Every structure is written in C-alpha cells, then in structure tokens.
Amino acid sequence: MQILGYFLAILIGLSIGLIGAGGSILTVPVLNYIFQMPVSEAMPTSLLIVGMTSLLALIEHWKKGNVNLKTTLSFLLFSSLGAWIGAKAIIFFAPKLRLIIFIILMLIAGVAMLLRKESSVKLPAKQNIYLIALVGTFIGFLTGLVGIGGGFMIVPALTLLLAFPIEQAIGSSLFIIATNAFIGLSASHLKIDLPKAFYFFLCTALGTLLAKTLSPKINAQGLKKGFAIMVICLAIFMLIKEFWVF
Fold first, then answer.
1. How confident is the model at residue 78 (pLDDT cuts 50, 70, 90)?
2. Measured between alpha carbons, how far apart are the two ends of the chain, in Å?
C-alpha cells in the first residue's frame, strides 16, 4: 500500500513542478489514508513536505527569472502573517472540523482548476493594497490551519491582483508557498512524522525533477484538468468515508 503512496508522491511533485499548485491538496489525503497518519499529524507533515518540494521546484523558476520578488513581497507579507495566525488558531479547531474545511477547499480547488482558463492578455496593474492584504492573509491563514500550500488560490491571485504573467505567477507562488509553509510549521509546534516526511519528500523531489524534463512535452492544461478531476473525486470519496451515515 505504501508503494502506491510513494508513487502518488512522485505525481504530487510533478504537479508542483509543472503548475505550481496542487501538492498539499493530495498530500494530506495520501498521508491520512494510505500511510494511516492521523489528520492532526498529516497536516503539519504535509506542510513540511510541500514547503521543501516547493523550495526545490523554485530553484528552476528562479534561474529562469520567473520570480518577481519585489512585487511578490507585498503579497507575501500578509500571507505570512495569515500563516502564523492560522497555525496559532489550530487549538480552536477540532481535527474533524479542520478536515471538513480541508475537503471543502479540495472541492473548490478542483472546480476552480477545471473551469479556469489561462489568458494570454496582459492585464493592467490592479495593485489594490487592501485587496492584496485581505486575499494574502486569508490564503496564509488556511495554510497554517489545515496544511495546504494554497497554490491553486495564489496563482490566480497573482495574475489578477498583481498582473503577473502565468510563468511569473507559478514561480512566485512557489516562493510564497515555501515561505508560508515554514512559518506555519514554526508557529504550530505540532507532531511531525520525520521519517515518512523524508521518504515522501524524496519522491516528490523526483517528481519535480521529472517536471523539469517533461515540461516541454506535456500539455499543462490537459494535466491541470486531469488533476482537477482527480481532486474532486478524492474529495467526494473523503466526504463519503468520513461523514456518510448509513
């Protein structure tokens, strides 16, 4: 069974490397259902794995100049604050409630990725600092609370709020995800299964390396749609398994 889990870890790394999103949406369920890790442990372990994997994937985007560091910092400031608040707020949310929030986010992520179309038109700058503060803090809060990287929200936010081209949005998203993940971890002090996290990370790292090789040959839109369908199906499965009353 764990072989399946490590295979899925490779696919998670591939997703992070190619589309800059999707890692933690699958990491938590894989750790919970396949590796039999409690939700309270799976979420912070997921943060560690996704943070390290995003950092690894970031290297290639950094080399290509796909990280708009100067403009991204305004978004990162608020999302980092949100990640810290979310991590501290964990004590007020029961594991079951956090799981419900996580499943809802999975459904939103899947539907959003399935319906959203990338635009090749460069948008005018719309840097409304209040909107950036609100969106950034909210995404960071969810990162700290339920262990998601939030790439499926960060990439659209960067393209719409900061007028980033999609390549820069993906690269900058990886930078934000990695930063938020480590801030959330440092603030939460929750138990992490380090051996499983290490082996899982090795597989996701392999996935990001494959992404570097396969990116010119893979249709990113097709991959995103397939990934979105998988996320929706997994969320429905989790709902049935966790909350179905016979």
1. very high
2. 27
